[in-house]
Every structure is written in structure tokens, then in C-alpha cells.
Amino acid sequence: MADKFYVTAAIPYVNGLPHLGHTLEFTIVDVISRYQRLSSKKALLTSGSDENGQKILQAAKKENLPPQKLADKYTKDFLAHAKQLNVNFDVWRRGTDKKNHWPGVVKLWQRAEKNGDIYKKKYQGLYCVGCEQFYKKGELVDGKCPEHLIKPEVVEEENYFFKLSRYQKRLEKLIADGKLRVLPEVRKNETLGFIRQGLEDFSVSRPKERLSDWGIPVPGDDSQVMYVWFDALTIYMTAVGWNWDLKKFKTWWPADLHVIGKGIYRFHTVYWPAMLLSTGFPLPKAVLVHGYVTSDGQKMAKSLGNVVDPEKLLAKYGTDPVRYYLLKEIPTQSDGDFTEARFKEVYNADLANGLGNLVARVLTMADKFTGGKVPSVDQDPDAHPLRVDEKIYNWKKAWQAIDQHVNAYEFQRALEAIWEFVHAADKYIDENKPWELAKKGQQKEIDWVVYGLLDSLHQLAWQIYPFLPETAQKVAHALSIEKLLAKNPIFKDSWVNIKPGTKIKKIKPLFPRL
């Protein structure tokens, strides 16, 4: 299906509450899926719960809960967090779904096994439970896992292995040629560097005795359960019909984009593509690797006492301000910092004094100078000297910039293009001074100014929709165009001028100053 776009968020472990990194990633994928729909494509957004594996067992033991109860509890929290963020997942596939997920994982395993890529052997290695991954000594930092900063366990056991080494040259060529895009360029180069060092086969099962029978049994060997990454990555396929609705699967697969954090990018740029090559499936078209949210320049950690609770942030400041900060201040393809002081600065400067103030000014002028309605004007742009399309930053240029930057996954720059439009509209007000025109009784000129500004808000409702959907709806409500944004909006509707005579509604201030 040429007009489809299938985007996935990573499959989070549900062994605890969502953190700000999840908030960032959920917001990123939501912007992408909303923009694709705005661009008239059929978009599908999926994620799910990574529920099998040692981390879940450990957390369950700590909370004195059966692992299924623990998975149920935190899955509910993740779904509630997505809802609070206005993130609309079309599918949320759980790792404990025995109806649609487990059979698909088993089938994938059997295909890899039939291709001669799965074998059993004894192995000793350094294992990090937090990553659910074996590490080489050279990959450790001061003898610790580079991700969780804890010493890995020395584990010796007999497991099944996947012949990753068999796919080294094919993977290198696919990534180097851009047939599997890895973004940003630095992650592409790191991936190629890792591959060129020489790929080693990796373990794809764990002894049943270590996992207390928690996980998907290896087909034909009840003494082993599947490695959590072999299981969880397959959610991207079982979410869209693999092994239970092949028509749906053929419609959506391959994924157009996997969005993941930098801590797990190798699983998505090396291990997962190799598994798909082994089993004969098309590879995802691209993998977008985002960075971390730091706190005052440091990685967030409970031990440092600098962890930001996203739920408290949302409750205190609202959904769209949090979305805006993460999209503007955290560069999508690298790390970015969060402090509450900086959050307040950005909120007041961009939202309260910027977008919120512009909307309030324009609606007030419409109420005061044009009877609370969109005024009638001569639609011929040459009929009057107040050329709105030149005086206000040209909206077509704004759309071109937004389109370019969203498709390059540069959300910060897309928002800059929108705010350039906001600033130009403010400047247009200051230059044309409708209050002065009113004193002189120049109603025709006032109508042109107010009409142009209301039409600019009409444009802004569409421009901000993927980023600030709640605010977009409020602006649309004020302009009585909410039906255009209510369901499956397409940005070509934004190019229809706002209709004269439309009643303007009063709304509460969008972003009261902090």
C-alpha cells in the first residue's frame, strides 16, 4: 500500500512506571503518525509491553506480586500515560498475549531454525540483567555495564544461539547503501563500526530454571524459554497481523520507521534485521535513534535524586506545554536537558507570550472591531494595499519548511518555522495598528487586517496540530472549524480560506503566564 506509513515506538519493559524518556519517545511517534495522516496517508502507530524475562521476575519478587499481575499493573500505567499525553496508539501488543503474539514468535523461531540459523551450545559470559544482554569485556566501562552502570554477572549455561555472524556482510551493505536507513548519521557510523569489528552469534534462549517458566517456551525443548529480545522485537510484526491476519500483515509490513532510544539501537539495527533476513521478511525502511533526556546535564538516576516524574509534570503544567518543551528543547537525534527553571522560561517566552498572546490578541480584535465575526473582504489580493500574504510570513513557505523538517525528523526546526509565522503575525498587528485605523473610521482596512490575522490562526491550527493537538483543537473551536480537525484531518483543508461571516467564539487563555 503506497499511501501507508507504519511507525513503531520501542517496546518498553513494564517493570516500573514510565519515565521522561518514554514521554519523549511517545510524543515523537505521535507527531510522526499525526503528520502522516495530515499528509493524507494511512498511518498506523504501535507499541506494546515487554513482559517476559528476568527483569519482570525480579520486579515482581520485589513487589511480592505474581509476574502477570505486575505486568498488568504497569501496562495499565503506560497506557494511561500515553492517554494523558494525547498519544493514540492504534495497537498495543502485549508480550503475554498467547492468542496473537506467542504463536507468531514461535513461527518466526521455526523459520530461522529451518534456515539453519539456530543451534545449541554451552556459553560463559558477562550478563547484565538490566539490559537482558551479554557483554564483552571491552564493551564495559570501568568493569560495569555502560547503560546501567552495574557490574554484570558471570553466567555459564547452555543456550540456543542465532547465527548473527552469517549476516555480517549483508547487513553492512544494506546499511552502508542506505537500504536500511539508520538516523542520525552518527548512529549509522557506529552501527557500521560495530558490524565491521566482526559479528558474533548471540544467545536467543535462557534456561527455564533461571526464568521460573516465565516466557515463551522454545519449540521442541521445554527446558528453555526464548530470549526476551527475540520475543519483544517480534511484537512489531504480531501487532499488524503476522501469523493471525496475513492480509493485514501484507498491508502494513515492513515498518516504515522504528523509533528507539540510543541504549537499544543495536538490537534494532543489527540483531532484528538479521533475524528478518534469516526468516525471509522485508526489513524496516528506517530506524530513528533518539537520545536521552538529562537533568541539569546529568543522566537521570534515582541514586542522584534527579529523576523527573513525567506524571507530576503533566499534572502541574498540562499536556501540550510538556510536549512542546520535549520537542523544542530536546534535539530529536541527540541528548537534551530538562530543568524546571528552563521549562518555565520556554513556557513563558514561546507559549504564554508567543502563541497564546497572539491568539488572544486576534480574537479580541475580532470581537472589538468586526462584531465577533470573520469580516467580508474582497478576495482579490491585488484589490487592497494591505497584502496579507506578503505582510504576514507566507504560510506556503511555512508549510514547506514544516514538511521538510518533520520528514527529516527535526522537530525543533519545524517548530521554529511555525513560530516564525507567529512572530510575523504579531509584527503585522504592530505595523498596521487596527486600533488606530478604528479611530480614523477606516473599516475596510480594519476588515482586511482582522481577516488576514484570523486566517493566520486558521493556518496555525493545522501547523501546530501534530505537535500540540489539544491547543490546535482550542484554536479550531474559537474559529468554528473544529470539525475540520476532529477526524482524519488533511492539511490541504488548511489552504481553504476562513469563511467570512463565521462566528468567533471566546476561549480561555491558552497558556496563562507562570
Automatic annotation (TrEMBL):
GO terms for molecular function: ATP binding; methionine-tRNA ligase activity. The keyword Cytoplasm applies. It is an enzyme of class 6 (ligase). It comes from the Bacteria. It is found in: Cytoplasm. One of its GO terms (cellular component) is cytoplasm. One of its GO terms (biological process) is methionyl-tRNA aminoacylation. CDD domains: Anticodon_Ia_Met, MetRS_core. It catalyses: tRNA(Met) + L-methionine + ATP = L-methionyl-tRNA(Met) + AMP + diphosphate. Keywords: Aminoacyl-tRNA synthetase, ATP-binding, Cytoplasm, Ligase, Nucleotide-binding, Protein biosynthesis. This is Methionine--tRNA ligase. It comes from Candidatus Beckwithbacteria bacterium GW2011_GWB1_47_15. The lineage of its organism: Bacteria, Candidatus Beckwithiibacteriota.
